[in-house]
């Protein structure tokens, strides 16, 4: 996949440059001290979630063959060993829900993850049918978080989600989108509706969510999941062949992935960020962003300025 390939190129460039800590981009302390990932509370309940989760768009849309699924099996097993928890899926993501359900069940880890999926259709009964299908595919009697995907028929689905939450079929309710243009509508819903989660795009270069959406979610007590943290690989392409700045070590940043992710999770409105990967080394690297020091406001400003200057 294009964005994974670009990340590998960026990491190879770091190694070739001999950039100190960047020479070992996967040398996270998680190897030696698992389950030390920073956690944040879900405001509506106080339940804690690790700040780095796993997205499944593209990577988990594979067939039933053992060779296709083996890397994903390894990713899920390692994620659980390191203390990762939230896995985000959707009916839109092809076979992702089924693959996640099959592999986590085979690994006897199905109930140990926090499953977040979505309803992505129009009409009440269509939504009910689709969500029941998600339960079957993910091999669950209850989904941790059900989200209205890209706000499609959101008013209809939120009514159903509230009914399902009362009935105990889901634990949390959320809404999602992936574009800056959607942030105003997301914010309006955050302020006017009783929801537990909002999911949106946010990255070190795409900071529209900082204008007001993230603050609104924090003020209203709504948990925030971040998608598109690497801008579909564009950030890795931007830093290809470049060394990490020396001051990145002040924030325990050991790779470009951690640079990008730590910027996001250093915003305390963010509950969890969900980079997608089918590569266990990338997973270890990503989860490592949840360890160690986070940049303060001065550090965040320095990171923005550095990226803007490349």
Summarize the structure.
The chain is of the alpha/beta class and 310 residues long.
Please give a structural write-up.
The protein is an alpha/beta fold. The chain has one domain (2-308): NADP-dependent oxidoreductase domain (TIM Barrel). It contains 11 helices and 10 strands. It has helices at residues 2-17, 66-81, 96-106, 124-137, 154-167, 183-192, 213-220, 234-238, 256-265, 280-288, 297-308, and strands spanning 39-41, 48-50, 54-55, 86-88, 114-119, 143-148, 170-176, 197-201, 223-227, 272-273. An 8-stranded parallel β-sheet has the order 3-4-5-6-7-8-9-10. Strand 1 and strand 2 (48-50) form a beta hairpin. Helix 2 runs parallel beside helix 10 (280-288) and helix 6 (183-192) packs parallel to helix 7. The radius of gyration is 19 Å and the shape is globular. The two termini are 25 Å apart. Pfam families: Aldo_ket_red. Residues 52-297 form the NADP-dependent oxidoreductase domain.
